[in-house]
Amino acid sequence: AAKSEDGLDFRCFDRNMRHAAEEQRELVEQLGRALARRQFEVHFQPLISLHERIVAGLEALVRWRHPVRGLLSPARFIHLAESAGFLPSIGAMVLEEACARLSEWRGLGLDPGRVAVNLSASQLRDRNLPRFVLDTTMKHGLTPDRIELEVPETVTLGRAGENAIGILSDLRSLGFSIALDDFGTGYASLTHLRRLPVDKIKIDLSFIAGMSGNAADLAIVRAMVNLGHDLGMTVLAEGIETEEQADLLVKLGCDEVQGFLFGRPMPAEGLLAWLRQRQVTEC
Ligand code: C2E
Ligand code: MG
Ligand code: MG
Ligand code: MG
């Protein structure tokens, strides 16, 4: 009876909504304990230098090994963790783990370059963040040029954005590099971009997905690559899944790529095996 003319079942919709709300409440409750119980894992995805096709770095990506629900992707819990105030501590753990693994792999003679760590809006409100990032880096015997900090474009907008920009400038003065994540989705103006203390832009995967069949998306990607270069930035494209996309990006002069075509995010042991395998095949 609750079906609309195009067949949508509103009762079912309502039930799903309630179900989703319950799930969210439950996850928020469990988030606090999850950290102490070591349920978060850091996976690593290779960043590839497109011209030489060598590993230029890794991106650290968090996952939640939930005792009942299995491995949860960040899409399921990051926004909940951010609004419940857990991201500063989760973020600290991710940075710690990223530095520890990078240092370990370097010690094994498998140097993957630098490691990129995502920062959230709440972390960029903390004036002590630069000190903390520097201390963590040095504790693991690394130098700041080994660490890249990724921030979404939106974090730099508005009044809170001014503070975030100040903190990013401090990090950059310490020698860390800054990448603007999900570039193209944040509605930042070009004048705004020019003011940002940023070394790299990461073109959002939604543009890459449309690039092969859609002339507008291709034009946008081309414009973003040129803009980044004209502003003196490195340009990385996210979400490369096909050789066709990789070839197009070579033609556009893109510097780095990241995507399932080259390597998925992997747990630390998987990444180590992947690095070893590459070393063998490259020799
Ligand atoms: P992001 O920083 O833009 O990370 C890239 C996302 O694209 C990752 O999703 C990665 O798995 C996915 N990806 C990479 N290559 C491909 C591809 O070829 N095809 C497709 N379809 N996807 C690809 P993931 O790991 O699910 O992370 C989602 C988002 O969660 C991240 O987007 C980032 O915004 C956030 N996130 C992840 N880890 C952290 C963290 O430690 N701290 C914070 N604050 N945010 C995080
Ligand atoms: Mg990122
Ligand atoms: Mg990204
Ligand atoms: Mg993204």
From TrEMBL:
Signal peptide: none annotated. Residues 24-279 form the EAL domain. It comes from the Bacteria. This is EAL domain-containing protein. The chain holds residues 409 to 691 of 691 of the full protein.
